Amino acid sequence: MNEPVLRVAQLQKIFGNKEVLRGIDLAVEPGTVLGLLGANGSGKTTLIKCALGLLRPTSGNIMVFGEDSWNLSAAAKARLGYVPQEVTSYPWMRVRQVLAYTAAFYERWNHAFVQTLCERWHVPLEDRIGSLSTGQLQTVGIVLALGHQPEFLVLDEPVASLDPSARRQFLRTLLELLQDRQQTILFSTHITSDLERVAQRVAILGDGKIRFLGELDELKERVKRLRFTARHDLPTSFAVPGALRCEVAGSHATVSVANFDERLVAEMRQTWDADIAVNDLNLEEIFVEMHDGAHV
Amino acid sequence: MVETPAIFEINPNSGVPIYRQIVDQVHAMVAGGTLREGDLLPSVRQVAQNAAVNPMTVSKAYSRLEIEGVVKRARGLGMQVLPPSENGSLDDRKAQFRTTIEPALHRARQLGLDSQQIREVILSLLQKTQSDVVTGGSPVTDPEKKATGGPPVAT
Description:
The complex is a heterodimer.
Chain A: E1 6-15, E2 18-28, E3 33-38, H1 44-51, E4 59-64, E5 67-68, H2 74-78, E6 80-83, H3 95-103, H4 111-120, H5 134-146, E7 152-156, H6 164-181, E8 184-188, H7 192-198, E9 201-206, E10 209-215, H8 216-222, E11 224-230, E12 243-249, E13 252-257, H9 262-271, E14 274-280, H10 283-293
Parallel strand pairs in A: 3-8, 3-9, 6-7, 7-8
Antiparallel strand pairs in A: 1-2, 1-4, 4-5, 9-10, 11-13, 11-14, 12-13
Chain B: H1 18-32, H2 44-51, H3 55-67, E1 71-74, E2 78-81, H4 90-110, H5 115-136, H6 143-148
Antiparallel strand pairs in B: 1-2
């Protein structure tokens, strides 16, 4: 009954001789928001395009609403909404015409909701698509993706070109959809502060693999920065199990750990005869620690 | 009385999970008397909209508080504050306190204090907090009268 909306298993994607995705497993449960984080070129867009059947996987299995994503039925596609990284539309059409044209493809198009969104986001209905700014075009892309009230919304960097106030309004609209319709969302972005507001779960992508998949709260509770101040210089044997990054300078050390444990810290206080301060990290700091740590 | 949603100060970009922030703030408000027995927490919807955070996260915080026995789900009303109770058995509370002072004791050793000196610091702190409690507490005891030590004048 609680079948995942999206299930990705052992997804591999090779372009020429470049392996972009190297065995991805993930699932998006109905009514949840999964945030997708990753450095430039880590394969976020490739993953999203494979998930939507816009790219053919080299190997692996992807199911959307229980159907193979490469052979989605029209009925399944009608339940999907997608905001691509770069919105493309018909430059010679007016915004009002593009909305009417798109609406004609969907049985469940909600005209009243679209009107509300256009008013809220000051969409210039009479302007031609070709004359819009990048931010305005992105806003139109979002309206087009929401108009048919999709059950599963896939957002690939949807807010990159929006100003902070427009971004906040967009987030509030997403939160309303979550509250009122138990919307399912897959949300890829570089803006970690947005994910911290809307995502319950996060997937961190790096080098074509999933580095972390789980609850955002759990990630914040597990990844911590420890600051050691020892009475004497720390020995060369100094090491912390599960460390993402470790910097030692004389009697001081800064260590980021991926599996924080109060008892472990108490033990280390004794072992290294050190005072240890524990610092919380926000999502941006965690991302940097995981990303940089992997390349040391 | 229904509290306004702004009673919580939520910082989504802190390293502390949002649900944790809400749980900790409710604990603090109950301990500080801002929230009293029978008060209602703002609705999940109000808090989520006000702070622009996922409503599921607010729900998670409220469920946690319910499990901890701080609030109860009142039908048709929302989350209602329960009378404050002791948090766990005496042994539990002692164990909790122990984990708080252990690092402090370790630091004291690093600073080169011996057991006697540590004891003196703790005792003086204890005396200070005790007198705070007495002067700030209920008017049952009158510390000023006690301090003067004079016998009440009988007529």
